[in-house]
């Protein structure tokens, strides 16, 4: 305590006095004898032991040096006069009822004197004085409250109680402020920053399909691990219950609260208690980074800033409920144990601002413009709130808590609606995206990367999304989205989870859009390459993630079949014309023996070789610049081409080569050996100019 044990509360001087000893108010009103008698009675009534009497005499003598003449020998009884029942059989005693009444009034006189004495020094604090002083003051308050119903002194008791309650309000406010424990901002900041480093920033999407943005690239960690790093990471503050008031002050605060409740000052107690606790919890929210923002302010915030605030809200909600509110509930139960109703009311009122701030931000986010990049954050918010609502029901109960829980369940429902609305908007974006610039090399479109990484991210929230999308039912998906619409397809759709059906629908939108984009290529062969690249990318993203578990083998087999169809179409469109020049159309053979009379046939064979060379070189020039990123698909295409071209070329040159070799400039027509062709074919689909030195003259 801050005051020295021997220092009394300072006293008010009379108006106009310039110096001298302080004169207590009581001394200005009554004579010297009455002062001594009153002081003696105070000590005799309230002292609990000889040592306590000595302490009280020392304190009172500080008011007036004449009071030091009182000695503790005048008080043989160790108990205060008013605390022991009189002995009805003691000789010389009055009738028991008369003795008890007289003793009770004497106790009140002493208590009243002490209350008035402290009231003369409003700047002094009882709980900053020696410990015994606080105990004596509280005992005096108890006596005054007990005499509120005593007709002889009820008026005086009311005044004394009013003065005491006013002081106790100030004492309560001082104790709660002085002994409050602020949240450790530095430690919490480091914790939240560490969690944010593992966030989903690398997977956040934008409304533009920009291949340079991180979400359009294939990162190392992948979306399946991002959420576990950021949301399920260890937050050391999340499950730690904070003592926001020093434990050593709780008993003193409770002692004040008990007397205010007993005196009928519960509303004044609640007003002081709730105001202080509410402000402290608001400060804690600021430390956690949960700001007080209106709906309009949230609507105007740029996405990068909003994203950061949403992350802090997610961590903040868990910390608030599991640490702050749990600690606040415990404090209410300890301090306000005298009244169950007041305890619940004060807890709700103290935390109302905190809960309202959490609720308002959740509501503001739920009505924000629907855009795909916000979906993962809204899902994080939904899951965080859904996770803590059962815990909140353990903290908020009764009529006071019902409204709080109902409000937060409303926020949860609106966040769920925002998730479903954002998914719906995402589908519209896929259907309406109409960029007209084709990928020059026929490679994977940025939209494909964007969508598949986005869908892989959604799978992390599969349990939540299954719950939210369950009310849509199987009818949410158009059964024509799968080719042919066979019975097998229908059974497949019915077997999917709600999220699975939505994923099938979204990927079907992507595939339809890619089909339209393939038509931007004038070259039919490049259309096939583009379709193969993008379909294979989609299949790989599904197969290598939880998407594969949700969509199943049936879906993957369908897409692999589509890749094979595109491969056959590519060979037909690109190489049919080339191979037509190597067909045997009945112009004779090298063994016919009629070369001298077959000049016309020889010319036709030369023309075929010439046309083959031109067509092959044209394909080589263009298709070496085309790109097939997947090495396995690229190699399979080259093998398929070789299996069609090389045998045909070998057979044609073997049968008709002699017709050309017999003439001059034969190398002009038979420019390539079988090895030359194989070397040239190895350059296809690499996305760069092929080697110029593959061919050799025969």
From TrEMBL:
Residue ranges occupied by any Exocyst complex subunit Exo70 C-terminal domain in the UniProt entry: 311-683
What are the GO MF terms of this UniProt record?
phosphatidylinositol-4,5-bisphosphate binding
User: Gene Ontology cellular component?
Assistant: exocyst
Q: Which InterPro entries does UniProt cross-reference here?
A: Cullin_repeat-like_dom_sf, Exo70, Exo70_C
Bias type Pro residues, positions: 1-10
Has keyword Cell cycle?
Answer: no
Asked whether the keyword Transferase is assigned, the reply is: no
The domain of life is: Eukaryota
A single Pfam family, by name?
Exo70_C
Q: What job does the chain carry out?
A: Component of the exocyst complex.
Its protein name is Exocyst subunit Exo70 family protein
Q: Which organism is it from?
A: Miscanthus lutarioriparius
């Amino acid at each position: 305590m801050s005051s020295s044990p021997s220092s009394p509360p300072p006293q008010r001087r009379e108006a106009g006095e310039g110096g001298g000893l302080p004169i207590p108010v009581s001394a200005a009103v009554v004579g010297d004898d009455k002062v001594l008698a009153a002081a003696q009675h105070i000590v005799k009534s309230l002292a609990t032991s000889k040592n306590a009497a000595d302490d009280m005499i020392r304190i009172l003598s500080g008011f007036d040096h004449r009071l030091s003449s009182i000695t503790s020998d005048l008080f043989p009884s160790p108990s205060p006069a008013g605390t022991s029942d009189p002995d009805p059989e003691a000789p010389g005693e009055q009738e028991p009822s008369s003795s008890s009444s007289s003793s009770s009034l004497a106790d009140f006189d002493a208590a009243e004197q002490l209350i008035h004495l402290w009231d003369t020094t409003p700047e002094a604090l009882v709980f900053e004085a020696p410990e015994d002083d606080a105990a004596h003051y509280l005992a005096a308050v108890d006596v005054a409250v007990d005499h509120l119903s005593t007709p002889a002194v009820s008026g005086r008791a009311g005044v004394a109680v009013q003065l005491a309650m006013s002081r106790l309000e100030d004492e309560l406010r001082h104790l709660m402020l002085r002994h409050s424990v602020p949240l450790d901002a530095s430690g919490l900041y480091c914790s939240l920053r560490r969690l944010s480093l593992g966030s989903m920033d690398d997977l956040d999407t934008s409304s533009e399909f920009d291949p340079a943005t991180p979400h359009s690239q294939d990162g190392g960690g992948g979306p399946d691990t991002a959420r576990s790093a950021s949301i399920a990471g260890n937050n050391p503050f999340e499950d730690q219950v904070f003592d926001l008031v020093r434990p050593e002050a709780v008993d003193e605060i409770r002692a004040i609260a008990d007397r205010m409740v007993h005196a009928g000052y519960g509303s004044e107690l609640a007003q002081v208690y709730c105001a202080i606790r509410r402000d402290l919890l608001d400060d804690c929210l600021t430390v956690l980074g949960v700001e007080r923002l209106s709906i309009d302010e949230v609507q105007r915030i740029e996405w990068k800033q909003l994203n950061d605030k949403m992350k802090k809200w997610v961590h903040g909600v868990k910390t608030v409920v599991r640490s702050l509110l749990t600690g606040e509930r415990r404090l209410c139960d300890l301090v306000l144990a005298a009244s169950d109703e007041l305890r619940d009311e004060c807890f709700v009122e103290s935390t109302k601002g905190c809960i309202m701030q959490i609720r308002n931000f959740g509501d503001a986010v739920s009505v924000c413009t629907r855009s795909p990049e916000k979906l993962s954050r809204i899902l994080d918010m939904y899951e965080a709130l859904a996770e803590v609502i059962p815990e909140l029901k353990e903290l908020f109960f009764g009529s006071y808590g019902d409204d709080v829980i109902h409000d937060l369940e409303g926020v949860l429902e609106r966040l769920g609606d925002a998730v479903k609305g954002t998914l719906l908007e995402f589908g519209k974006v896929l259907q309406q995206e109409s960029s007209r610039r084709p990928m020059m090399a026929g490679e994977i479109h940025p939209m494909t990367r964007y969508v598949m990484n986005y869908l892989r991210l959604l799978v992390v929230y599969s349990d939540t999304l299954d719950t939210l999308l369950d009310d849509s039912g199987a009818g949410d998906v158009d059964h024509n989205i799968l080719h042919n619409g066979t019975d097998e397809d229908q059974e497949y759709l019915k077997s999917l989870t709600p999220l699975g059906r939505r994923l099938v629908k979204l990927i079907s939108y992507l595939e339809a859009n890619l089909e339209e984009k393939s038509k931007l290529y004038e070259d039919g062969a490049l259309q096939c390459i583009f379709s193969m690249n993008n379909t294979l990318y989609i299949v790989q993203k599904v197969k290598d993630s939880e998407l594969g578990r949700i969509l199943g083998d049936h879906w993957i087999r369908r897409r692999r079949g589509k890749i094979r169809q595109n491969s056959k179409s590519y060979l037909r469109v690109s190489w049919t014309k080339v191979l037509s020049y190597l067909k045997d159309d009945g112009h004779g053979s090298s063994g016919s023996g009629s070369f001298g009379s077959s000049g016309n046939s020889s010319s036709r064979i030369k023309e075929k070789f010439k046309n083959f060379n031109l067509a092959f070189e044209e394909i080589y020039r263009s298709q070496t610049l085309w790109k097939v990123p997947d090495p396995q698909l690229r190699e399979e295409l080259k093998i398929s081409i070789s299996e069609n071209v090389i045998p045909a070329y070998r057979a044609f040159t073997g049968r008709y080569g002699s017709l050309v070799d017999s003439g001059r400039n034969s190398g002009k027509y038979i420019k390539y050996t079988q090895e030359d062709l194989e070397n040239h074919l190895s350059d296809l689909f690499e996305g760069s100019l092929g080697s110029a030195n593959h061919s050799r003259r025969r």
